[in-house]
Amino acid sequence: MRSTPIASICIVLLIGLRTTPAASPTAIPPNEPVSANPRYIDLTEFNRMRATSPAQLTLLDTRPESSCRERSLVGAICLPVEAFFGPYRRLASVRDITWVLGTAGLRGDESVFVFGIDPVRRDAVAALLYLAGQAQVLVLNAPLQHMLETDHHGQASEPLSEPASGRTRGILRDPIHIGPWREHQILLRDELAEQLAQGRIVRLMDGRPLDEYWGERIRARRGGHIPGAEPAPASTLRANLERSEDGLGAETPVVAYAHDPLTGLAYLTLLRAGFGLDAALYLGGWREWADAGQLPADALSYAPIDQAAGTLADQNERNTRDLTQTPALTQSLLTLAALAGAGGFGYLLGRRTT
Description:
Blueprint: H1 5-19, E1 39-41, H2 43-52, E2 57-61, H3 65-70, E3 77-78, H4 94-103, E4 111-115, H5 119-131, E5 136-140, E6 186-187, H6 189-197, E7 204-206, H7 210-213, E8 223-225, E9 229-231, H8 234-242, E10 254-257, H9 261-275, E11 279-282, H10 285-291, E12 298-301, H11 305-323, H12 328-353
Parallel strand pairs: 1-5, 2-3, 2-4, 4-5, 6-11, 7-9, 7-10, 10-11
Antiparallel strand pairs: 8-12
């Protein structure tokens, strides 16, 4: 039997639909306004935005999940920085970061409002959202503690209208986060080394404390700084921002780095949102650069042999304690689950052998 032209067309369409690749994130072209994303806002602007268009803002609480679940802003989603990092502050992969954002209910086209008490935790999450292609990232750069406190009568302070618990992330990503990654804002170690050798980086900024910049304090295999980097400690810049002082200049694009991915991400948000710099990030930071002994360094220093091992071990222990501590309750539940599983297996094995 000869097939009709209509049947042939339907078959072609079905094959085309099955073989068409799903839309995948693509890099955003480097022509985005610097001051637009991410952006710091104060408490007055936050209250105005919540009053005029509350449904258009997705609130993200970056405090530890236990604190967020206990009390947060009304409608907030718990998105602690620990969700993106493993042991020793190892940053998750692009795939895993995208998965986490999906479990928080983010698609990528929303305007998100990031808040928290610790500015490093808050700004690190904001930078990850920005790099992952989130449409608009707003960061509350204001004291938050009083917003989450209650008075003597148990009533919530403004802008809270009632006590609220933060909503935790889901297990599955729903929806799928499809924000296009801003790949042009991220530099890898070899890329940075090549661009420095070719003289293609005009301005390189180091966000670590001055004693680490000059090699007086060592938290990696070597002390010092990347050749050509200018010292611009994040703590100093935050203090200047509170006093409305600038002094950095925004004429040329900059490449920024800090000690590790966590502090580097926070530094990126500070430079872009706080000072309007067209900043890209060397994500690995000094810790990764110092680990490659063949790469050059200025103000180079080494810890004494009898102290080097202890210094790195102590630092790793602090990093792990800061970001990967498991609550005692979780450990107990895991133990009970293991015992229950072992008991069930023994029961089944006994029935098989009787």
